[in-house]
Amino acid sequence: xxxxxxxxxxxxxxxxxxxxxxxxxxxxxxxxxxxxxxxxxxxxxxxxxxxxxxxxxxxxxxxxxxxxxxxxxxxxxxxxxxxxxxxxxxxxxxxxxxxxxxxxxxxxxxxxxxxxxxxxxxxxxxxxxxxxxxxxxxxxxxxxxxxxxxxxxxxxxxxxxxxxxxxxxxxxxxxxxxxxxxxxxxxxxxxxxxxxxxxxxxxxxxxxxxxxxxxxxxxxxxxxxxxxxxxxxxxxxxxxxxxxxxxxxxx
Amino acid sequence: xxxxxxxxxxxxxxxxxxxxxxxxxxxxxxxxxxxxxxxxxxxxxxxxxxxxxxxxxxxxxxxxxxxxxxxxxxxxxxxxxxxxxxxxxxxxxxxxxxxxxxxxxxxxxxxxxxxxxxxxxxxxxxxxxxxxxxxxxxxxxxxxxxxxxxxxxxxxxxxxxxxxxxxxxxxxxxxxxxxxxxxxxxxxxxxxxxxxxxxxxxxxxxxxxxxxxxxxxxxxxxxxxxxxxxxxxxxxxxxxxxxxxxxxxxxxxxxxxxxxxxxxxxxxxxxxxxxxxxxxxxxxxxxxxx
Amino acid sequence: xxxxxxxxxxxxxxxxxxxxxxxxxxxxxxxxxxxxxxxxxxxxxxxxxxxxxxxxxxxxxxxxxxxxxxxxxxxxxxxxxxxxxxxxxxxxxxxxxxxxxxxxxxxxxxxxxxxxxxxxxxxxxxxxxxxxxxxxxxxxxxxxxxxxxxxxxxxxxxxxxxxxxxxxxxxxxxxxxxxxxxxxxxxxxxxxxxxxxxxxxxxxxxxxxxxxxxxxxxxxxxxxxxxxxxxxxxxxxxxxxxxxxxxxxxxxxxxxxxxxxxxxxxxxxxxxxxxxxxxxxxxxxxxxxxxxxxxxxxxxxxxxxxxxxxxxxxxxxxxxxxxxxxxxxxxxxxxxxxxxxxxxxxxxxxxxxxxxxxxxxxxxxxxxxxxxxxxxxxxxx
Lengths: 251, 290, 381
Prior knowledge:
The complex is a heterotrimer. By secondary structure, chain A is of the alpha/beta class. Chain A contains ten helices and ten strands. Chain A has helices at residues 45-53, 75-80, 98-105, 112-116, 124-133, 149-163, 179-192, 205-211, 229-234, 236-242; strands at 5-16, 19-30, 34-38, 60-65, 68-69, 83-86, 167-171, 197-201, 214-219, 222-227. Chain B has a domain at 20-217. In chain B, strand 1 (129-132) and strand 2 (135-138) form a beta hairpin. The longest helix of chain B has 31 residues, at 2-32. Chain B is globular, with a radius of gyration of 19 Å. Chain C folds into two domains: 21-271, no CATH class; 343-381. In chain C, a hairpin with a 2-residue loop joins strand 1 and strand 2 (186-188). At the B-C interface, helix 4, helix 9 and helix 11 of B face helix 6, helix 7, helix 13, helix 15 and helix 17 of C.
């Protein structure tokens, strides 16, 4: 990767009441890259995403976005600087329609007063297109709470697309999807490469192989190995870390 | 010197009443996550139960305590069985439903016993002050202090040293998983709620000789109790004890400096500020929330 | 487009309601009855205020009566200063101050000689108080049940303070013996048609403006916050700002309701900002439908209207509260969106031509509301 790094983690540590979820974590993701984070359970993958998007605070170390320190910023300020996040547990607005969900996701204007006199007609076309992209265009006026699990995942992805962040953090985006849906997701992410920088935490190795440029393997709160899929799978330390959890292919 | 000691004892007395009232609430809130706004009405029922036993059956306060505990516990059990269990996944709605229960209990008592103030007699053996380390202390207040500490110990043992407590804590951590291991969550919740209600009843019985008994007395108690629990940190029994003590002492000192109303206002405001600074309470653990 | 059609239909419902309350005086000339009806409208306005924050943003404000009471006192202070014959005390002191040995008018009473200031203060004071409380709770990311407890605590504190500061507030008795409010030459006597119209117009305007507001983008984001507060932060919205904003808007509406209430009742009293009225607001709102402004208004009008038409004796009121408590529980358990949601259900059933899909939708909505809220609760733990 010749591109300059957009996200850098320097020696980041996160603790929960004495338990070190992440310690001495160093990570650098280049602009436009699609990076996969893998690792056994409890390796600190989700925490790594949490610390980037401001959900948890680093006890020590630094998080940089385009060279600027965002370690101490609160999550909405980080979001405003261009980092979007999808959580492991699908979180959409269940009592609102799909259309309303997308309109919330379309967050070009953030002020409470300016939005009070803004009526939601302007973005209609763009949102319809977006819904079509993830196959939700025929349920635009259904409450999101009625969507199937797979559709919920799609909606969340569409929310991120509406948000249109420079950096997108995804926590297990294909959990609960069929193989076919997973491949469709892979296609969407592949098409986002270059324009967006994407960091994905994922267990499905087939999916990871399909989309990733570089894979980072985490273990016990640290980076264990980094490289392309083949390199990582042949790495002795990685094999060791996964021993007992059935090998990397099943992780 | 004398002033400081007597001031501390005033504070301790307030603190022990607060602890009594907050204990039941802390158990219910901390373990079940249910905001029981009828808690104040349970306290009120306890006070009326004592008044009823004393006035109509001639049973004194001390003799009636166990009975009050069982009676109000039973009321709590019924409320949990018929109502609360349908709302475990809707915490905001438990507030509303228990508020409704509070209204029903309050109005029920008002219709049955009348709106006028009632008075409960202190037990004869505890009316005289006793001399303690050279100071005159109200025997009844010392009694309340002792009971509060005793109930705290009982609660502690119940939660941390019994099979029941183990199951309760398991459910608090993760209800579904606890269920998978064969814990009967419904039964444990019913009993916990009943126990918390019983404690509230006891609190009401014990404060009844110190304050007048009226159908709407519960409102103030429930707010007091909640501030104590919230300030202490929701899932920490120790936190509840510490914040009862702090709030009790602060109330004592402030009441001495100005008057009861101002003391209450200042203490309430301070607790709100405290919550602003420590949203998790003073004694909370930092955990990863998913 | 169905989403659009629904908005139009709802707007039609709002307009019908507004016309209905505006033509009431044509049929009713009894001043006593009209006064009663004006009172119900004020309660309706108060209920709308709670619906804005609770129904649309998930902020369960158990201390809504604070704003109501403060608005009421602001109006009463202005009217008190104009009471004729001029007060018993020297220099135009209100009577209760004289009884409490207050020598001169306190500085914060001074500006209330002006109606303009009083009208401004009746909104600004509740908003300022709400802003402070809101700043404390929302900046601390306090949400859900904590908001309920803190607002309840604030209500108790402010009520205590007003009763305690008898010299300046009239204590338990409140501020009584007021003059008639007059604006642009119109006398708003408590029993006048003018006052009824004032209440009806303000309620109508609030409903229509409120309707526009909840359909704005800010209204949409507030509903998103109600559904999943944490998620909204990650879009870059400053959730605390949004929450505090609606909290203040709600306080402003309640403040206006309070001012009107002083006119209708001809006094201000600490019972206006006590726990029972705060509880009543929540009940009205829940019964009518918390997530519908017009539903909330109807809830208040129906509940207080039925109460007022049955009896006014104390024994009846006590029994009535008991019944309300039970009804409240039933609504919370089985009809979380209140009576208005039943109306919607009936309306849709009558129009099967619109496609069975929407009918199915309503049916499943009714059966799944509990589940949906349940999910929200789990994810916010």
